[in-house]
Write a structure and sequence with these properties.
Blueprint: H1 2-12, E1 15-19, E2 25-29, H2 35-59, H3 61-72, H4 76-85, H5 89-102
Antiparallel strand pairs: 1-2
């Protein structure tokens, strides 16, 4: 009974039917895709890069760097934020693009 209940619970989350070599139609549990988690992580990275670029364009290079330096002098959480908010080449490119679009 335990084996049947376990198989039933797996099949209740989705299944795929397949025909075996002897012609028997068998339902197999569908594997869960991990793409949703990776897609969400990629979306977070893209949004963060766009935010950094827009902030860099809004504040200007010197003011942005001053704020990063102030974060780097803070506690561990602020230092982690400063590490992620450093102006990298992608951020500078997004900032330049935003400035050119606004003008």
């Amino acid at each position: 009974m335990r084996r049947i209940n376990r198989r039933h619970s797996k099949l209740s989350q989705g299944y795929v039917t397949a025909v075996t070599s002897d012609g028997l139609v068998v339902a197999k549990p569908q594997r869960r895709a991990r793409r949703g988690m990776l897609r969400g992580l990629a979306m977070v990275v893209v949004v963060m890069m766009l935010f950094k670029g827009a902030l860099h364009a809004q504040l200007g290079a010197q003011s942005y760097q001053d704020r990063i330096d102030a974060l780097a002098a803070g506690n561990a959480m602020e230092q982690a934020g400063a590490y992620f908010m450093v102006a990298d080449p992608i951020t500078l490119w997004i900032s330049k693009t935003v400035v050119s679009l606004v003008r």
